[in-house]
Write a structure and sequence with these properties.
The protein is mainly alpha-helical. The protein has helices at residues 44-51, 61-83, 87-105, 114-139, 143-169; strands at residues 8-9, 17-18, 20-21, 28-29, 35-37, 40-42.
Length: 174
């Protein structure tokens, strides 16, 4: 009898020797295939099947999220165009308000792509005033005021989009 058990090889990479096993299905996995979870290492298949439980959105959540995020981001950009420097303080608050309004409209359903979709909608909502200011800048009327307004609009759009993204991201999918 030998004390050395036969070597294990990764289920996905048959030429890679490993000592790891998925703590859910016990399949041998190499470090490239292993995903560290709070309960130990899991294979990607077990992780995907577990995460499908968290996909609760329905098809109409995407247009609802698009509408509410884009409209509220546009209204916030109108406010930011008036506020100037204070946009630095208003934009994160607007991002949180838009995220919570979006979450409320879709009734707290979630999916892997919904937070990205909502962030893109917020960027789209902040874009019309940026575009309008760029056109005014090309015309050369009131150059200094337009440059500052453009800077604050870009700051607003980037801040709202990133705040909304991280606020809605919630559960981390891999």
């Amino acid at each position: 009898m030998s004390d050395n058990p036969s070597p294990l090889y990764c289920a996905n990479h048959p030429n890679v020797e490993t000592g790891l096993r998925c703590n859910n299905c016990s399949k041998p996995i190499c470090p490239k295939c292993a995903v560290l979870t709070p309960t130990g290492y899991r294979c990607r298949e077990c992780l995907r099947s577990q995460q499908k439980v968290f996909e609760t959105t329905v098809w109409y959540d995407y247009p609802l999220a698009l509408g509410i995020a884009a409209i509220l981001a546009f209204l916030g950009s109108l406010l930011a165009s008036i506020m100037g420097f204070f946009t630095l303080f208003i934009a994160p608050i607007a991002g949180v308000i838009i995220a919570e309004a979006t979450r409320w409209v879709i009734r707290r359903r979630r999916s892997e792509r919904l937070f990205r979709f909502s962030a893109a909608a917020a960027a789209i909502g902040g874009f019309p005033l940026v575009l309008m200011l760029l056109i005014s800048l090309l015309q050369g009327v009131g150059l200094m005021n337009i440059i500052w307004s453009l800077i604050w609009q870009i700051v607003y759009t980037v801040t709202v989009t990133s705040t909304l993204y991280y606020r809605l991201k919630g559960i981390r999918f891999q």
